Prior knowledge:
Largest interface: A-B, 101 and 102 residues
Mean pLDDT of chain B: 86
Number of strands of chain B: 0
CATH class of the largest domain in chain B: Mainly Alpha
Shape of chain A: globular
Number of helices of chain A: 15
CATH architecture of the largest domain in chain A: Orthogonal Bundle
Helix content of chain B: over 70%
CATH class of the largest domain in chain A: Mainly Alpha
Strand content of chain A: under 5%
Largest sheet of chain A: 2 strands, antiparallel
Distance between the termini of chain B: 41 Å
CATH architecture of the largest domain in chain B: Orthogonal Bundle
Order of helices and strands of chain A: HHEEHHHHHHHHHHHHH
Oligomer: heterodimer
Low-confidence stretches of chain A: none
Strand order of the largest sheet of chain A: 1-2
Largest sheet of chain B: none
Order of helices and strands of chain B: HHHHHHHHHHHHHHH
CATH topology of the largest domain in chain A: MetI-like fold
Structural class of chain A: mainly alpha
Amino acid sequence: MQEIVRAKKRKKFSFTPYLFIAPHVILFIIFFLIPMFYGIYASFTKWNLFTDPTFIGLDNYKTILTNTESTFYRQFWNGLKNTIIFVIICVPFQIIIPLFIALLLDKKPKGRNVFQGILYMPTLFSITSVTLTWLFIFNRSLGLFNNLFGTDINWYGEQPYAWMTIVITTLWWGIGGNLIIYVAALSGIDKSVLEAADLDGARGLKRFWYITIPAIKFPLAYTIIVSVIAQFNIYGQPLIITGGGPNESTYVLLMYIRNLAFGTGNSVAGMASAMATCLGLIIGIISIGQLILLRKRSD
Amino acid sequence: MKTRNKFNDGYQVHNSRKKESWIAFFILCIIVLIALVPLFWIIISSFKVDAEINQAGGFMFLPKTWTLQNYKSILSFSNKQLPVFNWFFNSIIVSGSHTVAAVMIYAMSAYAYAKLEFKGRDTIFLGIMFLSSFPAITNIIPLYKIMHVFGWLNELIALIVPGLAGVLNIFLIRQFMYAIPNVILESARIDGAKEWTIFSRIVLPNCKPILIAVGLFTFTGSWNDFLWPSIAINNIDRLTLTAGLQLAKGVYGNQVARMCTIATIAIIPMIILYIFTQKYFVKGISLNSGVKG
Lengths: 299, 293
């Protein structure tokens, strides 16, 4: 016992533990903390990325939030609107489709793991290869869809088809993660509860609504929040599939931010930082919701 | 009489469950088929000649003449517009070294936070966890400036190092390390083993499953990163495969077979990786979300 006490005492003065955490802490400060605070500071400045930023107070925020004459105002609100439209269309499908498939897998059909494995696979493909694939599927004259169904839809040049193309591509790419979470959650439900419900005649939708959903409500809430946050960061799909068109109706906020900071022409990095900070605030509020939820679960 | 009824009920439930399982099987077959069609179609189309695809009214699923010409011209070293070979090589270097460094650094930190006692341990860990939950969306513009100051713009190191600042994986490894009994570590310490020896000889081998899962997620995350490489790299020869493919639409806009080929080239390595490592992905996601499967 004394040994251990002494050993503990000795450890207190040891420098070793700090050496173990030092590499990560240093990297964290240089590549996360400094950029984060600098980015917020930059949103209060006029800055072209290469000279020193000049402090201009709240001017950038005034411009993007209230100056209806400014192109930045138009870009910010159009970008935010389109981003939110995408989140609202995409997230419900991103929950319902994998949940439906997970319920099927929970019936323990033959080849269960093979089905799950195949449906998860596209998650590992890069956004560029996924979008190239779907560009071809929805190509107006050469594409699989129009040829298979004898339609002549201008998929990425007309609304609402442009959004449909982006959403379908996103769903094909990204339902796998939620699917695996739901499969795990469903298999964790106490089987005796389900059997009791069976004998009481609770089947089908009734059983799903009153027993299954409450039993998986935490994983469900977790996936909803994580999906919302992930989809707020949408960028690659509209960039490659529609290029933001038609008429900038799929131009999302991250595309504007990127163009303002790194596009051709003069960089307006301060303005871009203000837009990014606003988007960050929105995502942050949702993250806080996630944190509260996770705390509740661990209680 | 009563017993018999019960038996009958049980039998019916069993029977209907079997039926349900078959219905599920058929619906799943259809869903998986629909999900696989795009994949098969671009792979098959990558073996078609362009004339066959472009023919008016000549739509068909399978090619009439199979050709490797698309692969030859894309993978050729003289393909300066889309140096796919370079990109592939860059991606392997970037994702490979990023993953090795990440797993090492994360495991070291996780070990200290889980098993060592030192002043400020919990404060530092909770502080980092809290700060890292801030959305990183504002970071990308200043990060570019930092790369400029370091002279890392257009260098592969810009794609390897900044991503090492992540925190979530440290948390996951730390959770896993708690399961290692302290007694083993203490007795090694009493035997005079150095912390580094304990870490590398006892702790690391015991954390293999989580380290593999973290490594795989890190690797695929780095391989598929799109926004950052397309900002930090302007030199076409230094791009990664994921970022470089963005240029394919501009170059091969009308040569659909070539686009399919290039997409196939990007997809195949991931399928191969996935076939060998599937179970770790499933385990990793369950750990990530905290659901016990």
